[in-house]
Amino acid sequence: MNEFLDARQYAPATQRNREAILEVLLQVLPSTGTVLEVSSGTGEHAVFFAPRLIRHKWIPSDPNPVARASIAAWREYCPADNLYPPIALDVCDPVWEIEGDELPESLQEIDLKQEPIVAIININMIHIAPWSACLGLMAGAGRILPPGGILYLYGPFKQGGKHTATSNAMFDESLQMQNPEWGVRDLDEVVAVAETQSLSLVKTYTMPANNLSVIFQA
């Protein structure tokens, strides 16, 4: 195996949740258009989803250069015509690179005016990031998504201020021990932030291992 492929990272949870997430995406994504995956992590979701959603262009992203190297390595290992190289994107930036007139060189062949970003996908991020990341994600989605565009979130959530499972409460405690700014978010608070950006909660789906898929629409 060459050094490039050795950059691949592995997240065991991806193998467990990708089929269930894909099932929801097939129901909620607009029929065509560009999908921006925010905080793509290892890249394993991107290489699984893109070839199964061939009517969409898939742009992975991550602020971490190590993660972007992993995404690029997975893309080399599992190429798909509609899967693009990862871009550097920090949700807390006031303007995302993809919003500018000058797109990253790796995306030059995409015409976002003809094939606009119709969906933003964010899996397992807001609980392992400061609350400011959730605020930034919602602000970016509010700026970028056209009317009818979809913001998809996946992860554990509290509901009505309470954990839905003992395992989630234990997970929340462990997260806050790692970083007091991390933690399982309350769905009501996330929805409230989304509404400030003109994003409406459409539906939630119960997912394996006490997670939720949460669908917002612009």
TrEMBL record:
> Can you tell which superkingdom this protein's organism belongs to?
Bacteria
Database matches in Pfam families: DUF938
PANTHER family the UniProt entry points to: UPF0585 PROTEIN CG18661
Name of the protein described by the UniProt record = SAM-dependent methyltransferase
Q: Which organism is it from?
A: Allocoleopsis franciscana PCC 7113
